[in-house]
Design a protein that fits this description.
Blueprint (H helix, E strand, L loop, with lengths): L9 E2 L3 E6 L3 E10 L3 E5 L3 H4 L5 E6 L9 E9 L2 E7 L3
Antiparallel strand pairs: 1-3, 2-3, 2-5, 3-4, 4-7, 5-6, 6-7
């Protein structure tokens, strides 16, 4: 299978706080990141999230406060969920 990704993924394991409109605050761990998005490890993600859903997230534990970003659910894997960064138009 060809890898058709536009941006290269880099391994990154950090804590990400998701602020979900229904489920509230959730702490998850990232697996990798690229210029366009991030993959997070979430048990049973399909029961919590839906494709196309948008919510905010913020990396935790940095020496300075990270920006809050908008994330959209784009794909599921058994180990978690792929999210793309949403940019204000």
């Amino acid at each position: 299978m060809d890898n058709k990704r536009e941006f290269r993924r880099s391994p990154l394991k950090v804590q990400l706080r998701i602020d979900h409109p229904v489920h509230g605050k959730m702490m998850v761990t990232t697996r990798d990141i690229s210029e366009s998005g991030v993959f997070v490890v979430i048990d049973d993600a399909r029961s919590l999230l839906n494709i196309g859903e948008v919510f905010s997230g913020q990396v935790q534990g940095l020496p300075v406060e990270a920006p809050v970003v908008r994330l959209e659910v784009v794909r599921f894997e058994p180990s978690g969920v792929g999210l793309v960064f949403q940019h204000d138009a």
